Amino acid sequence: MTANESPSRHTDVMAPATTPIVDPRIERSRRVVLTAAIDLLAEVGYGRTTIEAVAARSGVAKSTIYRHWAGKDELLEDAFAALKPPFEVCVGGSVRSRITDLLEQLATHTAGSDWSSCLPAMIEAAEHDSSARRLQRKISTERRKLLLSLLREGVASGELPSRIDPDLATDCLAGAIMVRRLMSLDVLKPSSVADLVAQVLPEH
After folding, report:
1. Nearest Cα to 101, choosing from 11, 2, 204, 203?
2. Residue in 177, 101, 188 with CA at minimum distance from that of residue 146
3. What is the pLDDT of residue 185?
4. How many angstroms from the chain centroid is the CA of residue 95?
5. How far apart are CA 88 and CA 73, in angstroms?
6. What is the pLDDT of residue 18?
7. For residues 159 and 94, is the Cβ–Cβ distance under 8 A?
8. Residue 49: which residues within 8 A CB-CB, separation 6 or more?
9. pLDDT tens, 89-129?
10. Does domain 24-82 have CATH number 1.10.10.60?
């Protein structure tokens, strides 16, 4: 990248090799079911979000739902995937600036989105239900991979101090945003992300 070029972005979603033809009616039904599942999860929690409840809320027959999903966990996993905000990673520029940009996106999505509204219910359920725990871990693991990769790149290149532990720094940076969302009414604003990064990732 030359001095006159600005960082570009790519999204952490792989495009399929081919685009299958999908019946619009089937796609509409899937979207209605996914939306109903997320709404119920946010309103009544994981335990009371059942296939029967989703069928009643969406108006789609249980038999139709089971043709697309083996059970509740598969349905909720697809619902989270469909509603998860796409995070765009800058290509080029400093690692610090790319980390800041990524965390600003996380702060924006965490402040208000359907995805964010379901997190408290999933975390609460994960304490008591093994299926919910597996699903929550899968969602959390996928969410932190991008940030962890950037931190490892920064340490390996020498841009970030070698004393920084990428795994711990990932938890400190993303965790600060998530804790404010889950434990406080005052969410961390995107405008405060640069200060957070400066605190956790000091200069050499």
Report:
1. 11
2. 101
3. 66
4. 21
5. 27
6. 44
7. yes
8. 37, 40, 41, 72, 76
9. 777 889 999 999 999 998 988 877 777 777 787 788 888 88
10. yes
Cβ atoms of 40 and 53 closer than 8 Å: yes
> How do strand 8-11 and strand 88-91 relate by DSSP bridges?
antiparallel
115 CB contacts (<8 Å, ≥6 apart)?
80, 83, 84, 85, 109
Question: Residue type for 204, please?
Answer: H
CATH 1.10.357.10 maps onto the chain at 86-200
- Angle in degrees, 0-180, between the axes of helices 193-200 and 95-111, rounded to the nearest 10: 130
pTM of the model: 0.70
How far is Cα of residue 7 from the mean position of the Cα atoms in its chain? 23
* pLDDT of residue 4 exceeding 80: no
And the tokens for 121?
A: 């219910």
